[in-house]
Write the C-alpha cells for this entry.
Amino acid sequence: MSLSFVDRSSTSLPVQFVGQPKWRAWLREQSAARRGWIESSGVAGNAGDLVLLPGRDGKASGAVLVLSAKPTLWDFGALATKLPSGTWRLASDTAPVSPTDAAVAIGLGTWRFERYRSKKGKAGARIIWPQGADKARATAIIESIFMARDLITTPSSDMGPAELAAAAQALGKAHKAKVKVIVGDDLLKQNYPMVHAVGRASSRAPRLIDLSWGRESDPKVTLVGKGVCFDTGGLDLKPATGMLNMKKDMAGAATMMAVAAMVMATRLPVRLRLLVPAVENSVSGNAFRPLDVVPTRKGITVEIGNTDAEGRLILCDALHEGASEKPTIMVDCATLTGAARVALGTDLPALFCNDDLLANELLATGTEVAEPVWRLPLFAGYRRLLDSKVADINNAPSAPFGGAITAALYLKEFVPDDVPWAHFDMMAWNNVSRPGRPEGGEAQAARAIFTTIEKRIKGTAGVPPAS
C-alpha cells in the first residue's frame, strides 16, 4: 500500500471537498493569490481533480478534491494516488457517502501488485481515519478485496489448484473455519466426476475446496466460485489472444473467497459454506474430448459440446452439492462467458437469478454501494438449445447466440427451484486504472453480495419488485 490510515497525528494537513456544481462559486470566494495559483495549476474543476493549496512558507497548506455532482464512494478513491506524502485529514463532510465507505474507497485505491518487482513503491501519504468511520468494517472489506485482487493477478505458474487451496486454507485458519480439500482421483471416489474430468489432463491435480464456518443452527449461506486456474480451452484450444489473460479464470473463486472473508471478519450470524472447484484446463493424452459423455454429481449425463465451456462443468458438481443443504441463499461467481461481456461490457457483471426478491435486493444493493450489476433473463425458451441426442444435456450449444443465457440455464439444471440462487457472470479485471480501482484483478460484485447477505441476516433487506 502506498497510503496508510492512522488514528491521529499532532500535525496534519486538511483535505476539503467541493462538489463540481459548486466549484466556480467556491473558487470566486478564494483570495486572488490562491485563485491565481489554482488556475495556473491547470485544475478546471472536473470531478476527480485535486489541487494542493500553497502556504506562506512555500509548502502545501492543504488540498481540495473536486467531487462529482452525485458523489459515490469512488470519488474518494482519488485521494489514494493523488495526495503527496505527509499526513492528511478529511476536513469536510463526506456526505452523501458514509465515512466508512469513503475510507473503503481510499483504501482500495492503494492496492498495488508488486510481488515480482525488485523495487517496491515508496511509502506515500497517511490519512487520519475519517471521523465516524467503522474502522473494523472498512479494514475487513479492504483486506478481503486485496486478497482477491492478489489471487487473480498472480500468474498461473504460482496460482494453480494447490496454491488456490492453500489460500483458502490460510483464510480458514485466520477465521477458525473448517477446510476440507478433495484432490485428484479422490474426486471420483467422492462423486465429483465433472471436476475430475476437466482437471485430469493437467500435471497439477484438480481439487474441490470446501470451507465451512459458523453455527449449524444459523441460516445457511452457500458461496460457489469458479476456480479455473488457467484455461487453455482444452482440446478446443483457444487462440493465443484468447489465452493471454486466462490466469484470471479463477476470479470467481477469489471473489467468493473475498465475500467469505467479509462474512467471517464481521462475524455475521450465518452458517457459511464456500465451495471452490479448482482445476487447470489443459491439453494432454487423457484430456476430455468434444462429444465425450461425462456423468455429474447430480446423476445426469453431459455431452461435451465444447471443452472450452469448462467453467459450467466444474460449477455444476459444486452447485448440486451446495444446493443439497437447502441454503437460504446460494450465490456463484464465474468468469463464464464472453457473451456477457459483449452484452454488458467489462464493468457490469451479468446477474441471473431464480428468485425475484433476491434479484431485486442484489440490484438495489449494487446501486447503493456503487457496484452495479445488471439482470439478464433465465429465458426458458432457450433451454432447448442444450438438448443432446445422446445424453441428458449438452454443455455448449452450437448456436452462436445467447451464450450467457444458455450457460446460466445449464447451471440452473443443477439448482432446485426452492433454493434462492444468484449467478454472476463477470470480467473480474480492471483494464484501466480509475479512482479506487487500479488496473488488474478485481472482485467485482463482492461488496454488493456481502451487503445483500448482511441485510437479509439483519432483517433490513426488502425492495419493491422491479417495474
In short: The chain has two domains: 4-125, 138-458.
